[in-house]
User: Fold this.
Amino acid sequence: MKQFYSLAQDSAEEFRAADPPCLLIVGHSSQLDSDAKRDSFELFRRSQRVMEIITFDELFKKIELLLSLLEGGGDQP
Assistant:
């Protein structure tokens, strides 16, 4: 993205630049077994601007909620 215009100008072929979202899936919330660990993790993940960081159990919870909504249940699992 930083060099798109110079690369596009020098290229004979047309191309597009994209800035796709990045998702990093890490660990499990149960590994954050102290307030200090939870606070540190939250501070770190909220400081990231180019990627979203989520734990496996958070991802599964979001998937369960989405499936429930799509199946018409409307109730949270």
Remarks:
- The first strand starts at residue 23 and ends at 26.
